[in-house]
Write a structure and sequence with these properties.
The protein is an alpha/beta fold. It has one domain (3-244): Alpha-Beta Barrel (TIM Barrel), CATH 3.20.20. The chain is 43% helix and 16% strand. The protein has helices at 15-24, 36-49, 73-82, 107-122, 134-144, 164-172, 181-185, 187-194, 221-244, and strands at residues 3-7, 28-33, 57-60, 89-96, 126-131, 155-157, 176-179, 201-203. The longest helix has 24 residues, at 221-244. It is globular, with a radius of gyration of 17 Å. The structure holds zinc ion.
Length: 246
Amino acid sequence: MPFDSHIHLGRLPHPKELAQALDQAGYAYNAVACEPAEWDPLWEIWQNSGLKEKKCNLAFGIHPMSVLQAKESHKQMLRAFLERDDCFMVGETGLDRRFPEYGPGELQEKWFLFQANLALELKRDLQIHCVGDYGRVIGLLKRLGFGKSPSDSRPIFHRFGGDIGIAHQILEMGGLISVHPSSLTKKSSRSALADIPKEMLLFETDADESFWNASDTIGTPAMVAESVAQRLLDALGNVREAAEDL
Ligand SMILES: [Zn+2]
């Protein structure tokens, strides 16, 4: 069964209809809601579409891009969403040098530490976004205790862009590596992926609003959902196939 380890279902057109079309196509996924405004709509779809029975899962968190909008009260809200089902993951969260508050001790790091701690406390997997400094992200995770005694919280490095040294450190922490088409175009990441056990790899589309086509505004919601579902299947199939040639 195709499994997409990182998709922004709520940012795609007609997410409810899309969840149905994906189900009919036998496509399962981790859907990520990484801004407070996305949490409740995704939860609604989860409730009403029986996604759990379909081997899908959800992640709730605050993206490094959104930390300036995040409020203290969101901490309690995030915990409450995660406590609604013990399979839910935390994230995506992490560090991204392209956005404000990236430096050590600044807001991105504060929200990352909060969410990583929450993942450890609740024994949940952690969806990690990293653009910039893998060494710093890994150092912070190790300091919190990831990778010490067998942990129930696995760091999942989404859209992997590190090299072989980073890949080994992730595996030593009991983490997983999620492969996006961009992971395969970067030379150092590509050769790292060729060198690690295939069972440690996940595959993803990271599909969000940038995945939209102009045609996604034409037709009934069900028709649009069906064509988007087909594009997702193709995109995920392509990245899996390309990884086989590593
Ligand atoms: Zn994402």
